[in-house]
Amino acid sequence: MRVLVVEDERLLADAVATGLRRQAMAVDVVYDGEAALERVDINEYDVVVLDRDLPLVHGDDVCRHIVAAGLPTRVLMLTASGDVSDRVEGLEIGADDYLPKPFAFTELIARVRALGRRATAPLPPVLERAGITLDPNRREVFRAGRPIQLAPKEFAVLEVLMRGDGAVVSAEQLLEKAWDENTDPFTNVVRVTVMTLRRKLGEPPVITTVPGAGYRI
């Protein structure tokens, strides 16, 4: 899942991004509404965690832009105000969910995951393919009942491949979904991660390399 965090309180923004990355999400961070507009027009995000009171361009206008552009991105709006009228106004603008500050981080994660599921075609909560079982919410992976410990990026790559449902997923698509925009597109990080993932999943191999196209399970 790819997420954009838009929050002008830099310590909070960076803390949220760090926590989401630990949940195997690819996260970009910006600190004002103008930068947010640039990012959503360039990158495809499943969820935008959007502070309402932003400098340069107000969060409401960022939300309106996402809705007007017809993007599949879901918006979780944050605000320091917990008034019902503010929550209603945010939802009427086009936000998909609303979370007042301060918030419990576990609740933020749960809401982001729920919105991420709504940003894509409906899928079962637990993914199963080729003897692999992956639970995105619990961040658990099993093969033939045996638990497999994966690093966050390995988990993210495996989830993207399993969501492909047998289709070929290109290295570019894996970069887009599992890494943030600071990753060098010419790096071999995808190949190395897939190689490590294959080793951890064990024999017989379940990830197939399609020369010149990508990978699939």
TrEMBL record:
Residues modified to 4-aspartylphosphate: 51
Record domain OmpR/PhoB-type: where: 124-217
UniProt cross-references to Gene3D superfamilies, sorted A to Z: 3.40.50.2300, 6.10.250.690, Winged helix-like DNA-binding domain superfamily/Winged helix DNA-binding domain
Entry's transmembrane regions: none
GO BP terms in the entry: regulation of DNA-templated transcription
Coiled coil region boundaries: none
Residues annotated to bind DNA: 124-217
Boundaries of every Response regulatory domain copy: 2-116
Origin superkingdom: Bacteria
One GO cellular component, as annotated: cytosol
Any GO molecular function: phosphorelay response regulator activity
One family name in Pfam for this protein: Trans_reg_C
Keyword terms of this UniProt record: DNA-binding, Phosphoprotein
PANTHER family: REGULATOR OF RPOS, TRANSCRIPTIONAL REGULATORY PROTEIN CUTR
Protein name: DNA-binding response regulator
Organism of this sequence: Streptomyces triticirhizae
